[in-house]
Sequence to fold (275 residues):
Amino acid sequence: MRAGFLLGLCLWLATSAAWAEAAGPGDPFGNVAAAYLVKIGGREVWARNADTPLPPASLTKMMTALLVLERADLRSVATVSREAGRETGTRLGLAPGDRMPVIDLLAATLLGSANDACHVLADHVAGTEAKFVVRMNARARELGLFGTRFTNACGHDAPGMRSTARDLARLAETAMGNPVFAKMAGLEDGWISTADGGKKFSLGNKNLLIGRYRGAIGVKTGFTGSAGKCLVALAERGRERVLLVLLNAPDRWWKAEEILDAAFAHGSGAFSSRP
Fold:
């Protein structure tokens, strides 16, 4: 039985190596996504269309959360505006006038990807979402994210809304450098409530790798009609850390595990040619 397993493993490795060679140096995974990027130990190893501008969906919320952490008091309380209460897509179900602790809204934004919570945060930090977007784009320029332009705080499809796999990798690294962001991004679930405790909400992390894939510690998922299924994943085993960005990846969960496994198996020396 063991001999059969070893033979199968050898055949799989040989096939994988041939596939990677056929796909071209630096791009061993082919058409798993419209764009992807893999960094091992902070070094870019594999990539495809990493500088192609694409809709980022709710990966946008990494920037929203980062700005909130940099500019807001997490102990403060924010009031839900009429505009935030009208948000569409994934939402908590907040009503205008509800008051929520900023830290709870941040958890809802990162774990549950709630658009109403995200909009409330934008209003709280800058007064309006439009003014917050100006700050998002200014922060993007500061980080050198020159392939990125935000037009809203939550990641809705909109003309001009774009980012790249390489920019999103840099944004994720910056955001995960904040201990509060990193802690929240790695939570499986949680409970939050309005400031008066009158409404309670259960949160589940939409990043299905958390709690399922060994070593997964973040970061964010996204989906819209134009962006498709998107993911920024970060996993850590021992001293090795792997960051993966997938944009418009129809089979993101299985492919993410496959790519992360390959990255951990081969380490930073595997397929070391850069695109």
Q: What stands out?
A: The radius of gyration is 19 Å. Residues 1-25, 268-275 have pLDDT under 50 and may be disordered. Residues 28 and 79 are 48 Å apart (CA to CA).
